[in-house]
């Protein structure tokens, strides 16, 4: 050691120090364990966690010291619980939630406030058992700041993969809502028309940190225009923006309700279709042929239909009309997709429904004919595959992040048990579930 170069000695010393000081061990005793939603349930298992990663899963209840390094391990007793991987929501808008004065907020809320609201919404999502979310459109600076702050451990929250600004044609589903030019002087960076602009809009999101790209293939329910729910971008524009994203290694999610818009997006090579409301047999066959995922978001349809019915003045007339049309048909779309063997990834559109109610999607999927196991696969293995993070989450196994939840009953028999998680661990951190949500809005939750 005396002869070693000073710099090398320092590196060796600090590495040793980290190893000694930085290791936190946890041993979880799982009464029942579904480590992989495709596999069997095992009983009386021990999940051994070092810092944020699963080191090993063993039969029986391991005591501290039984495995090397675990002498001071914390034992977490879930021997009366059913343990499974943290859930994944492939479609969220974590920075906002339904508020009646949406038009005013669009021109008054700062990015900074959106980020901070995202911290609270993220915690609600985490406490609901969702340890990963794919955010699909929203204020670019706000969402990247939130994602990075969570990644760096500055604030706690679900793992976020973020799209940045959604890509939309001028006047399309993601383009403001008819504000005067002096209120919205410039279109946001996701607005594009024509092949060249659309490529640039995609590349701009990637430049500032997008993990994937979200674009609107058709009109949408909550945009303030009576422009329907059919195709908006041309076939050529969709091909251009998907090619531009794939060339930079980014997957693409397309918001789509109408059939022609879905068919166009699928032919253009999209990786997932969000909502898929007017999906029929022909669309289902094209899904299967291309291998794209459907992200059904039943709870979004359920929520907007409920609001439009129960609170007739909540939405503008344009929006209310679309909400009443699209809400009821989404379950039928999932039923057809499921029958045809379309790959399905779990996603809610949280922000339309309240953050923290994400698990209710599972109940609705079950009512639409999907079996409990298929729903769990959609919310873990499939969602991880769609997002491209199967190497770090989606199943519980050595080397993956410790994203672990527990519920009271076996969800393979009782899917509604997901509504009340008893234990949540995100990347090795146990989350306090007894915190009441901050009352952000002065009216009852929808
Ligand atoms: Zn959405």
Could you explain the architecture of this structure?
This protein has 446 residues and is of the alpha/beta class. It folds into 2 domains: 23-86 and 397-430, Urease, subunit C, domain 1; 87-387, TIM Barrel (Alpha-Beta Barrel), CATH 3.20.20. It is built from 13 helices and 15 strands. The strands form 3 sheets. Strands 3-2-1-4-13-14-15 form a 7-stranded mixed beta sheet, with no helix packed on it. A 5-stranded parallel beta sheet has the order 8-9-10-11-12, sandwiched between helices. A 3-stranded parallel beta sheet has the order 5-6-7. β10 (272-275), α8 and β11 form a beta-alpha-beta unit. It is globular and about 65 Å long. The structure holds zinc ion. Zinc ion (ZN) binds at residues 91, 93, 136, 349.
Topology:
Blueprint: H1 6-21, E1 25-33, E2 42-50, E3 53-59, E4 74-85, E5 87-92, H2 102-108, H3 111-127, E6 130-135, H4 140-151, E7 159-162, H5 194-208, E8 213-216, H6 235-247, E9 252-256, H7 259-267, E10 272-275, H8 281-290, E11 293-295, H9 298-310, H10 317-326, H11 330-339, E12 343-344, H12 360-367, H13 372-387, E13 404-407, E14 423-426, E15 429-430
Parallel strand pairs: 1-4, 5-6, 6-7, 8-9, 9-10, 10-11, 11-12
Antiparallel strand pairs: 1-2, 2-3, 4-13, 13-14, 14-15
The structure holds zinc ion (ZN).
Zinc ion (ZN) binds next to loops.
